[in-house]
Amino acid sequence: MSLVKILLTGATGYIGGDLLIDLLERSSEFEVYVLIRGNERSSTFEKLGAKVVVGSQDDHDFLTKTASGFDVIINIADSVNVSITKAFLLGLEQGKQQHHHKAILIQTSGSGVVLEPTAGEYATEKIWSDLDVQAFYELPLQAPHRELDIFVTEYPQDKVTTAIISPSNIYGVGRGPYNRLSFINIAHERVAIKYRKPYVVGKGDNIWSTSHIKDLSSAYISLLDGLLHGTAGHGLEGYYFVEASQVRMAEVVQKIAEVLQKKGLLEDTNLIDMPEEVLQDPAVMPAFFVEYPGLAKLALGGTSRISADRLRKIGWKPEHTDPLDAVAHEIDVLLAE
Ligand SMILES: NC(=O)c1ccc[n+]([C@@H]2O[C@H](COP(=O)([O-])OP(=O)(O)OC[C@H]3O[C@@H](n4cnc5c(N)ncnc54)[C@H](OP(=O)(O)O)[C@@H]3O)[C@@H](O)[C@H]2O)c1
């Protein structure tokens, strides 16, 4: 049986790096390539057993030409840009016509698409199911990821089989070779370490659905297997939320405070409303939070509650259900930076 040729983007990042480890474990079935920018990191991936394609996601002709040589593309490096995904889809389509490749795209999105601006004061009640396709049509086009989600789910399925993995707030230390940390819980941890105070947006009463990074990787694998075997929905039936539990942000920050207090790095564990200057501090916030004023408050204080019904239907079973379990390990990694 010939190997399924897979191109993975975002492998130097948190999500892609962790998934790479699971893909490489299936070397008797998959031939795994990573698309990275810059040659400097090639040998790290080659040592792990991956093949390397070097190039930028900004060169769309290059993306199309590259994609035409693959059966499957898992795009993790970008979750909003339609033209990048379009270039991959065109290439997959050409590869199917010219070389009889399988032509499968798994695009990454995010549950930020249903994020409510609750500013840490409360949590909205609604839990979005990915089986409720009709409800998604009522979302505004301006919602994060929405334009790309529509483009991917409505793509002609006779040309390319498309599906979307939509992660919630991902936590836990990843197994990839470069970035091993996520951003929402990690931002709260960086803040508490730097300022020695348990800052939270508002009262921290907002709720995020969450999933451990290893369970997210197993979600990609379950979907990939389902698409290869024709047992997973795709196209309009191919939007997959990923969550294993829900957590109130105040609980996360309370746990962070306890861990730091035990280490003698924080005295008072009473939660404090996060000041604006902390929300805009580039030393503790991800660059894109600082770039778009208001985004940090929206993300850290917002509510996004989803249900991964479609993944559970295809047999995915998360192994980690308590996001607080990962806090101590994440803090150890941050303190060692
Ligand atoms: N982490 C979460 O909780 C979460 C939840 C929902 C959705 N998501 C979405 O999932 C995606 C990946 O998230 P992540 O946490 O893994 O992020 P990350 O750790 O920052 O990784 C981003 C990856 O994308 C690559 N990349 C970015 N721009 C690129 C470009 N122009 N050309 C080539 N590669 C490029 C980066 O490569 P370099 O190393 O070269 O910069 C890196 O490998 C993002 O779109 C994010 O919005 C994440």
Description of the structure:
The protein is built from 14 helices and 14 strands. With 337 residues, the protein is an alpha/beta fold. The chain has a single domain (4-335), classed as NAD(P)-binding Rossmann-like Domain (Rossmann fold), CATH 3.40.50.720. The strands form 4 sheets. It has a 7-stranded parallel β-sheet with strand order 3-2-1-4-5-7-11, with helices on both faces. Strands 8-10-12 form a 3-stranded mixed β-sheet. A two-stranded parallel ribbon has the order 6-14. Strand 2 (30-36), helix 2 and strand 3 (51-54) form a beta-alpha-beta unit. Helix 7 (184-195) crosses helix 9. The model has no long low-confidence stretch (mean pLDDT 97). NADP nicotinamide-adenine-dinucleotide phosphate is lined by residues 10, 12-16, 37, 56-58, 76-79, 108, 110, 167, 169-170, 179, 182-183. It holds the Pfam family NmrA. Residues 5-79 form the NmrA-like domain. This is NmrA-like domain-containing protein.
Percent of residues in helices comes to: 25-40%
CATH topology: Rossmann fold
Count of distinct strands? 14
CATH class categorisation: Alpha Beta
Tell me the radius of gyration.
20 Å
Oligomeric organization of the protein chains: single chain
How much strand content do the residues show? 15-25%
GO molecular function: aldehyde dehydrogenase (NAD+) activity
Organism: Umbelopsis ramanniana AG
Protein name: NmrA-like domain-containing protein
InterPro entries: NAD(P)-bd_dom_sf, NAD(P)-dependent_oxidoreduct, NmrA-like
